[in-house]
Structures are given as structure tokens and as C-alpha cells.
Amino acid sequence: MNEAWWCRPCDAPDIDVERIALARQGMLTKPPGSLGALEDLAVWCAARQGTDRPGIERVWISVFAADHGVAAEGVSAFPQAVTGEMVRNFATGGAAIAVLARQLGARLDVVNLGTVNDPGEVPGVHRATIAPATANFCDAAAMTPVQLRTAMQAGADRAALALDHDADLFIGGEMGIGNTTSATALACALLDESPDALVGAGTGLDSAGMARKRDVVQRALDRHADARDPLERLRRLGGFEIAALTGAYIAAAQSRMPVLVDGFITTVAALAAVRLNASAREWLCFAHRSNERGHARVLDALQAQPLLDLRMRLGEASGAAVAVPLLRLACALHREMATFEQAGVTRA
Question: Which residues form a coiled coil (predicted)?
Fold first, then answer.
């Protein structure tokens, strides 16, 4: 495996198609700009699909599950066994993202990268086990170099599979007790922020739990303060699923496949991806503003304007799934509305 595959530049979106799509928006039977962000969204999709008649029909959702050693510090309101239990829930259709995927007609791809409470072989779950969990990053680096590369490649492999299935859009999701702590620590390191600015409630911590979480993140930052490179920061503070998302986003962008980013944890993975490969940014669209405290700051760092703000903080790719109909409607309006000439309507 080429250990630097993630550095390969991504192609730019098709500027010629973008110009054609913008011109079409000006010819449709509506006042210019009257559909607001839906117009921008249609043009964004057109430039990335390379056609002025874009569409979002085949949606691929990969949910990466993994456990975190830092859960031993009591940073979650839920026990670590929940990660493995939720893997089974995804596969049997009972989780929120499973319901949303069915409603969208999307392909739901569940990937188990390593859970302490291993559900074993589950139909519909791809086993890509790296270890039962990362190391506790308060004591050591979360991942070895080999584990990091393996996790990133696991994400890239799922993006490649989505491309093989002719997906129009890639969505990544995550599940892992303790992963908001990992994502927060990584975001603090990448943004040079303090835990006070970014630590949120995660799965629903009370004030005492929040204080403990801030302390844990600060301890991790202090321990790994010598890690200056974004890849090394990802290795020391990230999780298997966060690394997989990072790899998936870069690989999708390298393949010219548009990406819809979900909430806080996935946006931190997107930040890591862009720090590793700046050209990937052009292929990322951001679905929603999570209710998790640090999300707004990470979005700002990426100069991202999310499509929705519904006070969601579930993860699993649920916020991105909810935003898919907006993309579909934006593309349908762009394709199917009549022009002034076609409709015989007088221009302004």
C-alpha cells in the first residue's frame, strides 16, 4: 500500500459545466436568485458530476463503527458495549440511519473496524477489524502507524466500492462510544483551540461529566503536544472510524465523487482530510449544523455553510441523510423547470 496515496491531488470541478449551469439558472422561469441556496446547490452538483443536468439518485452511506480506549476515562453517558450493539441495530434496520436510508432508497454499508463488544459475523456488516479499540490517548497514541494506515485504507476501499456501484453521492457516518471526545481532542489540536471552546455534551453528559471530559481532552493535548503534523495528530488523537472517514473523503474526492458531510465528528474528519489534502475541499458539501458545541467552529475553519440547522446531534450520518432530499429537489428544479423561451413567459 502506498502510504502517501492520500496526498495525490484531486481534480477540480468542471468549471465549463459550472458556467453552463449558472447560465441555465438565469434562463429558468423565476426571478434571478429566487430559489436561493437551492440554485447554488444545483450548480455545485452540476460542476462535480460534469453535467448541466445533475441528479442525486444513487446514494451510498458508509457507517464506520469503532471503539475508543479513552472511554475508560468515563467520557460518555453510555457504556462501551453500546457500540457493538448498535452495529447489529444498524444491520437489522432499527437504527435511525437504517430508517432514513430505507426512505431514501440509499445503500447502507456498515463497517465494523473493531468493537470491544464484538457482535461477531452479522449479515449486512463488513468486518474490517483492526483491534477491539484504540489505545487510551491519555496514556499513549490512539493508533500505531500501521493501524492508522489500515483505517484510512478501509475508508478509501468503501469509497471505491461506492464508485463501483455508480453512486452519485457518498455519505460517511460513524458510531463509537467516546468518539466525540476523540473528535474534540483532534479538533483542538488541528485548530489550536482549548477544550473550553470545543467540548460539548456528546451523548448527554451532565455538568460534572462535561468537566471530566474537558480535563481528559486537556490531558491528551498536553501529552501529545509535540505532534505538529496533521497525520500524526490524527494518529495520536483520532479513532479508527475517524481515520476511515478521513480516508474515505479523500478517496471519494480523488475519484470525482461528491461527498455530503454529516455532523460534528464527520466534520472533524473532513477537517483532517483537508489538512492532509487541500484539494479535497472542493468535493465536500456540509449537510447540517450539529447541536454539538464545537461543530460551528470546525465548520468555520472549513469555510462551510451547512444546508440545515435542526438541532440534531445523533451522528450515524443521520443529518446528512435528512439533507439528501434538498439536493435531489435542487437538481430536479434545475433539470425540469422550463426556460422563459420554452414557456413563452416574458422576461423581467
Answer: none
- Calpha distance 50→54 (Å, rounded): 8
Looking up cell 473493531 gives 114
Q: Residue 234 contacts by C-beta under 8 Å, 6 or more apart in sequence?
A: 148, 186, 242, 243, 246, 272, 276
Question: What would the pLDDT profile of 129-162 be if each residue is shown by its tens digit?
Answer: 999 999 999 999 999 999 999 999 999 999 999 9
How many Å apart are CA 212 and CA 209, to the nearest integer? 5
CATH number of the 59-325 domain: 3.40.50.10210
**52-86 per-position pLDDT tens digit:** 999 999 999 999 999 999 999 999 989 999 999 99
List CB contacts of 231: < 8 A, sequence separation 6 or more. 148, 276
**If you classify domain 13-53+333-343 with CATH, what class do you get?**
mainly alpha
CA angle 96, 315, 135 (to 5 degrees): 125
Type of residue at 85 = E
The secondary structure of 188-211 as a DSSP string is: HHHHT--HHHH---TTT--HHHHH
Q: Roughly what angle, to the nearest 10 degrees, separates helices 96-104 and 81-92?
A: 20
Closest CA relative to residue 264, chosen from 226, 315, 311, 325: 315
Q: Does pTM top 0.90 for this prediction?
A: yes
- Rounded Cα distance, 73 and 70, in Å: 6
Q: Sort strands 59-65 and 107-112 into parallel, antiparallel or unpaired.
A: parallel
Helical ranges in the chain per DSSP H: 15-27, 37-49, 81-92, 96-104, 145-164, 179-191, 195-198, 207-223, 230-237, 240-254, 264-276, 295-301, 318-336, 340-343
Three-state SS string over 129-155 comes to CCCCCCCCCCCCCCCCHHHHHHHHHHH
Q: What ranges do the domains of the chain cover?
A: 13-53+333-343, 59-325
User: Which residue in the block uniquely carries the three cell numbers 435511525?
Assistant: 96
C-alpha cell at 201: 455534551
